[in-house]
Design goal:
Helix content is about 35%, strand content about 25%. The protein is α+β, with helices and mostly antiparallel strands. Strand 7 and strand 8 form a beta hairpin. It is built from ten helices and 13 strands.
Length: about 375
Amino acid sequence: MMTYFFRAFSLVLVLVITIVGCTEEARKRMEPTPLAVGSLNQLSVIADEELWNGPIGDSIRYYFGSAFPILPQPEALFDLKHFTPDELIGEPVRKELKAYLVVADLSNDESSTSQMIRKDIGEEKTARAMREEDYSTNVGHDRWAKDQLLVYLFGSSEQNLVDQLIKKFTSIAKVVQNHYEEQIDASVYLGGVNHPIINKIQSQFGFYLKIPSTFDINIEDDSTLWLIYEGDVAVSNILIHKRPYMAQDQFTKANILALQNELGKKYVSSTLENSYMRVNDVDLPVFTQSIQLGDHYTVEARGIWEMVGDFMGGPFITYLILDEQRDEVIILNAFVLAPGERKRNFMLYLEQVLQSFDLKSGVN
């Protein structure tokens, strides 16, 4: 009788544990997935403590923490945070951030991060990574939260991991930056768009530019439009100008700087008499590169500006765009005044506006 009782009791206990376990799993499945959070351009690095404090960690900080181009005071391209896998488990909120870089040497079987990557990418991809030196990255989404990015960077050895970090940095950075683009766009156009200014740009200059509702017209004439947004801690500016295309040398660095100084002297000043804006290429060099903006040949220039006759300055980005159909050169110059503030994000916001350029949507 006693044996029968214990058998029955054991069966009931197993059933209870099974039901409770199933109920717990069902409860977890029914819980809403949190939305990923985090400040703009924050990158959380998941790596073992030993790796983070060693040469590989130094390389991660050197590349992903490198300076954003080009600002008056250095600011990092990404704001780095480091967690070990155990720290993620200990603080579940750390699993709800927007962007992660998971880094490990897959040959280290005792590494908790290596074990994490092996589990996440699967046996087949792990075997390929150990077999092929150049197979070293994988991208995942929404593992612990919605709108979440995980970039896995791994190597078949410590040296291979270093080599691949250097080789893949640019492409990884681009993936992370693209992931934040939606957040940037939401911030820039939180209050909608300024349709009257958008229409004016289309009718006067012949192209589309998605101007946020926060901007107003500061100065205008037949060839130039200066838009301004005076925020709480920063003044954001967009200067639009067009002139006839004469020759390819209009796109050289020297001519771009001369043009920007010409426009700064003519249109941009402070409240002090005889003040005007010019490029400061003494304290920091001006960086230029050829790009395609809206499928049109463009030269991008980045540097810092200063106000002659006043104590003002800040970063700028300029696009010089060739409009072959109209035989014109279009100048989009965005610059920020934000004394005592970090300026990276303000420049990212202005870049987002300039990147909306579309010559095909013009009406004249």
